[in-house]
């Protein structure tokens, strides 16, 4: 085989390896898709820190405390090179995110945990007790479900926080989570049917309108009811018209001459 052909075949395998083992690198800088300009967000620690902000910073820390060891297990226990690479990438990226999170916590005086919570420890226990494809399924599904749960929470913090450091952390965390969901889904074994579904639009609209409807019902309930002894508006109008007609008839009978004179005048 000629050297040129060997180099060509080698290049093909290199590209395939890049796509299969690191799709996030192959798709980096996707044309037409903007990357958020994170450098435009300040990071001074200025702004009120809400209870939700603190909870978010703690949850970012907790995510790293279990996903880093989970990724290490994926590299050791899985027999699938793709799962091994996913675990390696997610674990390494959580090391970076954890460093960012701890810096924000230190700046804002937020105390962080050093061990995973009970649920996370349970998931890690499941992974330790599983082997082969069973491990792969547990690893992928547990992480995909966890990322799907935190994803909307991060968006809420990003949109609502008054603190610029929390805002920047939320923006970065959002990018990490989207990357991790994409990596996990690239395994092709995510059980999407087991994931929670979004509420239907009608239900969301009804839920949003419920307070207004309740207020309207309350207003109707506390409005004074018409008195049973009173007269409704249509009845009053009829009575007034009848009274006026009777008055006209009486006037004509009492002063007939005046009526005749008016008729002669016209």
Structure description:
The protein is mostly helical and 266 residues long. It has a domain at 52-192: Ferritin, core subunit, four-helix bundle (Ferritin). The chain is built from 10 helices and no strands. The protein has helices at residues 3-21, 23-26, 51-77, 81-108, 118-128, 132-160, 164-185, 201-222, 233-254, 256-265. The longest helix has 29 residues, at 132-160. The chain is globular, with a radius of gyration of 37 Å.
Q: Summarize this, please?
A:
With 266 residues, this protein is mainly alpha-helical.
Strand content: under 5%
**SSE pattern, N- to C-terminal:** HHHHHHHHHH
Number of strands: 0
Write the CATH homologous superfamily of the domain at 52-192: Ferritin, core subunit, four-helix bundle
CATH level 1 class label of the domain at 52-192: Mainly Alpha
CATH architecture of the domain at 52-192: Up-down Bundle
Count of runs of 4 or more consecutive helical residues: 10
Structural class: mainly alpha
Measured as a percent range, the helix fraction is over 70%
Looking at CATH, which topology of the domain at 52-192 would you report?
Ferritin
Low-confidence stretches: 11-27, 218-240, 258-266
**Overall morphology:** globular
N-to-C span: 127 Å
What summary fits the major beta sheet? none
Mean pLDDT across the residues is 80
Rounded to an integer, what's the Rg over CA atoms?
A: 37 Å
């Amino acid at each position: 085989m000629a050297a040129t052909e060997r180099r060509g075949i080698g290049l093909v395998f290199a590209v395939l390896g890049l796509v299969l083992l690191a799709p996030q690198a192959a798709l980096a800088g996707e044309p037409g898709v903007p990357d958020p300009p994170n450098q435009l967000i300040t990071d001074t620690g200025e702004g009120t820190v809400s209870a939700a902000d603190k909870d978010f910073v703690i949850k970012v820390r907790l995510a790293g405390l279990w996903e880093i060891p989970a990724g290490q297990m994926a590299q050791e226990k899985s027999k699938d090179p793709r799962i091994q690479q996913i675990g390696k990438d997610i674990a390494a990226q959580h090391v970076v995110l954890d460093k960012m999170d701890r810096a924000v916590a230190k700046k804002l005086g937020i105390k962080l945990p050093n061990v995973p919570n009970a649920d996370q420890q349970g998931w890690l226990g499941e992974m330790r007790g599983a082997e082969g494809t069973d491990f792969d399924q547990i690893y992928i599904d547990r992480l995909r479900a966890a990322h799907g749960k935190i994803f909307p929470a991060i968006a809420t913090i990003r949109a609502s926080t008054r603190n610029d450091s929390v805002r920047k952390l939320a923006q970065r965390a959002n990018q990490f989570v989207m990357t991790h969901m994409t990596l996990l889904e690239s395994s092709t074994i995510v059980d999407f049917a087991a994931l929670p579904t979004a509420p239907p639009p009608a239900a969301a609209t009804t839920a949003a309108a419920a307070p207004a409807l309740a207020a309207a019902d309350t207003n109707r309930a506390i409005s004074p009811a018409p008195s049973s002894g009173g007269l409704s508006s249509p009845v009053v109008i009829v009575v007034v018209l009848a009274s006026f007609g009777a008055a006209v008839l009486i006037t004509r009978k009492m002063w007939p001459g005046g009526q005749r004179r008016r008729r002669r005048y016209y």
